[in-house]
Amino acid sequence: MSGNLRDRLRRIQLVRQEAAEAPSKPENAALVNAAGGTGDRNLLTEHGWASAGYLTLRREIVQIDSLELPRTIPKDAPMVIPGIGGETAFDDLLFFDLETTGLSGGAGTVAFLAAFGRLAAVGSGKSKNAPYNLHITQYLLLDYPGESDFIQAVLGEFSRSAGPSGITMISYNGKCFDSQILKTRCLMNGIAPPDYRHADLLYPARRLWKRLLPSCSQGTVESHILGIDRTGDIPGAMAPDIWFSFLRNGDAGPLLGICEHNRRDICGLAAIFATMIRIAGNPMAAAKNVSFDLEALSLRFGIKLMKEGKFSEGRGWLHTAAGKNGLPFVRAAALRVLAIDSERRIKDPSQALDFAESGVELLPPHSAARNEFERRIQRLKSRLK
Q1: Could you give the CA distance from residue 30 to residue 49 in angstroms, rounded to a whole number?
Q2: pTM, entire model
């Protein structure tokens, strides 16, 4: 065992022993640098951080009029954002992001910084849309012995008042990372993980922007689609080294930079969500102001409406999906549904044949989908003889 690790473990044991022997935790216990450094301990309090438990800090920030949204979530929101139910209200949403000591998860990865965001409509007018404030709460772990208090403080956000449908957590790649880290750290501390619904925006982002962007990372979507400028932002990949450096020397300056990165992640997450909500509310209108894969989304809308028996509206969306700007497989899928509907419901084999012949040319030779189109074409031609 190296000397540094041995010294580190001894300091942790000493802090735990002192905490157990103390008659009560001092009000400013969370401001003590358990790493034994000599950095400026007042810097964190100057930036709004206050004690929220042993070696745990908390701060609140309100982003005024940061978003414009409808007053209620559109009924078609689940078509764009899976996990958002029809009964979900904006008050039920909890935007969530973690900074951790590792980027690949695992039992040894610890969350040391958590941010939550809540939406609050400004005013109570009758207009269709309204400005919303974004209320951000952050929790910061100052050293390992305070993790239990840190986790308890974080879990308190999940128990704050929500509607009858309960909390819906909004994250970006949170299903694979943030939520798994939170669950693991709860179990490691003998605490029951929270219960919530989860809408991970990475997956709808891929459907909307995969063919338009070099990647669908949150930062890429923010800069290329929303025009958000994060110049000067410290990359999240630096978070582990910065926290470990803080434990060694107590220098809070770089740590505050990561706290700002964490806050901006929540703001960007909320902005992406707001854009998706606008797309769900009126895709055609949204397409005039923001780039996204309208054809792929139209295919989803069209199929859904056809299944609901709204044939005229559904066919309209499918015609949009079959437009010349879409990906070949999307266009072919829309033409297939139109051909089937024309043949079976409308009883118009000539129209069905036109759709099928347009679709077959979009698919590679010998593919299963092309073979299906070719069989359909032969059957329709025989009926028209």
Answers
A1: 10
A2: 0.86
